[in-house]
Amino acid sequence: MRVSELVERTGIPLATIKYYLREGLLMPGTATSATQAVYGEHHVRRLALIRALTEVVGLTVQKAGEVIRLIDSPEPDLFETLGKAVAALPPYLDDLADDYPRARAALERIGQVYDPEYAAVGQFERALAAAEAVGLPMSEERLDGYASHVMGIAEIDIGGVPAESPGSAVEYAVLGTAIYEPILAAMRRLAHQDLASRRLAAGSTSEQ
Amino acid sequence: MRVSELVERTGIPLATIKYYLREGLLMPGTATSATQAVYGEHHVRRLALIRALTEVVGLTVQKAGEVIRLIDSPEPDLFETLGKAVAALPPYLDDLADDYPRARAALERIGQVYDPEYAAVGQFERALAAAEAVGLPMSEERLDGYASHVMGIAEIDIGGVPAESPGSAVEYAVLGTAIYEPILAAMRRLAHQDLASRRLAAGSTSEQ
């Protein structure tokens, strides 16, 4: 299809498509003359992915580009590729520490394998420090309880990883990490409400 | 203690303390003359709470004030008070809908009691719509699996609610909801890494 059809199919303005082409997020079309090219279904799918990463997940075009480069050219080690791709998601740590003592102690306690360079280790450290700062430090009981349920959730997630190609695994890992996180946060708040309504027996205002 | 000692004890500047007094976040001290007042330990604790809500959780002073008013004057119905207090936390929905069909269907499927006015219902709807938008809609299997683990997490949370007073329950609900959310998000990313490293058997780069 011509680029004008690509605009029509996706609803993405021509200037934006040209910008994605220049930045390498969208692969070039097949040139048919010095000034024209044709595009296929994989361009439509790629534009949907760019929109998912930028408009829905909220990444900058630069961060979306990092993910897309990893989808297009996964490194030989898929484990490292997945780690780098997920690190393109917020939260971003501006102050990288040499050590993450709280996160390390917690991960050792729950017996998980982890790469100390992985962005989530720093995120975990910062979140644990914040809990201490407000006077609600993670207890060992809470850590153990959370860990077993979180592992159950992660098993559901990992069960859905597509096996076709490393690129599709990277795409699923990034989108799935980002998209199901707010779902889980909302579900937790709703579960609190369900439990609170049952415990407080405030039936008159809470029942459907 | 004099206000100068309160500044020293908490490290919060005098101008900020005066601002919190004016805005009603900090309760007045006991007047000892027309221009002087003395403050107690409850002022120190309150300033720590204000700092937790604003600096650690990241609320605006206005949103922190909403939480503090609910702590100081909980409504007769604790269930409603808790819902309003947790609604002071992000994410905020700027476009309130009349109906949340995806959230409603999901909550009915998993059999939870919920108040349709509760902010988390709208958050759940928006998160479910985002999953659809990126081509990863919540399947019933995922919903059921998530729901049972999230309920397990929520039971741990609810088990920690202090019973001394409605105000302390409100404080715990707001801080605990906010503070443990990023911990759970980081733990999920780390659990993915643990499972991926085991499944991919990429032992050379992933083992500690």
Index terms:
2 strands, 10 helices, 2% strand, mainly alpha, two-stranded antiparallel ribbon, Multidrug-efflux Transporter Regulator, Chain: A, Domain 2, homodimer
- Percent range of helical residues of chain A: 55-70%
Number of separate strands of chain A: 2
Provide the number of structural domains of chain A.
2
Assembly context of the chains: homodimer
Tally of contiguous helical segments of chain A: 10
Reported for the largest beta sheet of chain A, the result is:
2 strands, antiparallel
Principal-axes shape call of chain A: elongated
List segments of chain A where confidence is low: pLDDT < 50 over at least 5 consecutive residues. Answer: 202-208
Greatest interface and its residue counts?
Answer: A-B, 84 and 84 residues
Major sheet: arrangement of strands of chain A: 1-2
Q: How do the helices and strands follow one another from N- to C-terminus of chain A?
A: HHEEHHHHHHHH
Topology, element by element:
The structure is a homodimer of 208-residue chains.
Chain A (H helix, E strand, L loop, with lengths): L2 H8 L3 H10 L6 E2 L5 E2 L2 H16 L4 H12 L5 H9 L14 H10 L8 H15 L6 H20 L6 H35 L2 H4 L2
Helix pairs in contact in A: 4-5, 4-9, 5-9, 6-7
Describe this structure in words.
The structure is a homodimer of 208-residue chains. With 208 residues, chain A is mainly alpha-helical. Chain A folds into 2 domains: 56 residues, Multidrug-efflux Transporter Regulator, Chain: A, Domain 2; 129 residues, no CATH class. The first copy, chain A, contains 10 helices and 2 strands; from the N terminus they run H-H-E-E-H-H-H-H-H-H-H-H. A two-stranded antiparallel ribbon of chain A has the order 1-2. In chain A, strand 1 and strand 2 form a beta hairpin. In chain A, helix 4 crosses helix 9. The first copy, chain A, is elongated and about 65 Å long. The N and C termini of chain A lie far apart (52 Å). Chains A and B meet through helix 3, helix 5, helix 7, helix 8 and helix 9 of A and helix 3, helix 5, helix 7, helix 8 and helix 9 of B.
